[in-house]
Amino acid sequence: MTTGDPKRQVIASRIRDARRLAGLSQGQVAKMLGLQRPSVTEIEAGNRAVTAEEISKLAEIFDVSVVWLLGEGAAQLNAHDDRLQLAARELQKLKKDDLDRLLSILASMQGQENKT
Amino acid sequence: MNIRTDLAKQALEKSLEIREEYQYDFRSPLCIYELCERAKVKVQFVNDVSMEGIYAALAKPTILLSSLRPLMRRSFTCAHELGHHVFGHGSTIDELKDEAAGKFQPNEFLVDSFAGFLLMPAQGIKRAFSSRSIELAKAKPEQIYTVACSFGVGYETLIGHLKCAVQYITADHGALLRKTKLPQIRERLLGFAAKEPLMIVDRHYPIGALDVEIGTLVLLPAGTIVESDHIEFFKDVPNGRVFRAMRPGLARAAIPAANWGVMIRVSRYQYAGLARYRHLEETDSE
C-alpha cells in the first residue's frame, strides 16, 4: 500500500476515529504502543503503514474489532441488523442525529467477539 | 404476590448472584465500571448523544453512557444497563429520565431495582449508618448525602432506595429529606455556597478509591494530606479539608498518623471515551 492508497486512508481514518472514541490522545496511544507521538500522527494521516501486529494491538487498546479497523464493514450499523436486537419501539426514543451517531459508534464493534 | 414485589425479589436475587459470581461480598459498595470489566461488558462514555444510557446486545455486550449527566447518575445508569444485560433483555435505549417518566414498565422497574440492590446492598446500608452512629429513622440530609457518596450514588437515589426498596425510612421521612436540595446540603457541609459537585469522603469511607471529575470539590477528613497535583487544596472548613480535582490521574489522600487513605481518581470533565481510560493521565507530549 502507498500513501495515496484508498485502503490505507480508510484504515488511517478508522484508527483516528477509534482513538477518539476510546478517549485517548495520540500521545497516550504512542506510549501504549512504545512509539513516539509523531509516528501515531503519521499513521492517522495515512503516511505510515501499520503492521499486522500494530493493528492487533490497536484493536485491543481501542476495544474494537480488527476487521473494522482494517476498513471492513459499514461505517454505520443498520438499526434493523438482527445482531443488535433493537426493537422498533426503542428506535423511536432517539432523534435521528442521535440514532445515527449511536449506530456509527456501534459499527466499530462489528465482528468483535467477547474473548474469555 | 404483586408484580412489583415479584420483580423486586427477582432483582435482589440477581444482584446477589452477580456479586457472588464476580467475587464481591454482599455488603460493600462496588465500582460498577470495574464490575462491568470483570463481566466483559464494554462501557463507553459519550457526550454527543442525548440519552441516559444504552445497552447494545452485541457479541461484545456494550453499554453507552452519557457523560453529560451527573457523575453519580452515570454509575446508577451503568448498573441499570448492566441489568438489561444480565436479565437477557435485547438492546435498550434509556431516554433522559424526565422524558421517560410515565407508565409502569416491568423491565425498567426490574433493572432499576437490580441497580439499587447491586449498588446499595441492604446489609451495607445498615453498616454505613451504624458505623457513623447515625439513627436511620432520624437521618438528616447531610448524613444521607455522606452515605450516598460512600456508595457512589446520588442523594435522591439513596432516599428512593431507603424508602421503597429496603423500607428503612418512612414515606414522610423521605418526603422531608427531598425538600432539602443539593445546594443547601453543600453549604451546610462546607460552610460556604458552592455550585460545583461535592464528594464527601469521611473516615468510614469503605472502599479504597473514588471517582471524581475535574472541577469536583472533595471534602476529606481533617488532617488529610494529598501529595499530588491532580487535586489541589482549596480551604479548611469545620468539617474537614476541601480539595478541588484539577487534572486527570490518580491522587492518594491519606492521614499517615491514622493509617487511613483513599485513592482519588480524576477524569476529564464530561469525559468521552472508554471507562477503562477515564482517569488516564495526559502525556507530556500533549
Give structural notes:
The complex is a heterodimer of chains A (116) and B (286). With 116 residues, chain A is mainly alpha-helical. Chain A has helices spanning 6-22, 26-33, 37-44, 52-62, 66-69, 88-91, 96-107. In chain A, α2 packs across α3 (37-44). The radius of gyration of chain A is 15 Å and the shape is elongated. Chain B has a five-stranded mixed sheet with strand order 4-2-3-1-13. A four-stranded mixed sheet of chain B has the order 5-7-10-9. A four-stranded mixed sheet of chain B has the order 6-12-11-8, with no helix packed on it. In chain B, α1 crosses α5 (106-119) and α3 packs across α5 (106-119). Chain B is globular and about 50 Å long. The model of chain B has no long low-confidence stretch (mean pLDDT 93). The interface between A and B is large, with 33 and 38 residues.
Outline:
The complex is a heterodimer of chains A (116) and B (286). By secondary structure, chain A is mainly α.
Topology:
The complex is a heterodimer of chains A (116) and B (286).
Chain A: H1 6-22, H2 26-33, H3 37-44, H4 52-62, H5 66-69, H6 88-91, H7 96-107
Helix pairs in contact in A: 2-3
Chain B: H1 3-21, H2 32-38, E1 42-46, E2 53-56, E3 62-66, H3 71-86, E4 92-94, H4 97-100, H5 106-119, H6 122-131, H7 141-151, H8 155-165, H9 171-179, H10 182-190, E5 198-200, E6 209-213, E7 217-220, E8 225-226, E9 231-237, E10 240-245, E11 249-255, E12 260-267, E13 273-274
Parallel strand pairs in B: 1-3, 5-7, 6-12
Antiparallel strand pairs in B: 1-13, 2-3, 2-4, 7-10, 8-11, 9-10, 11-12
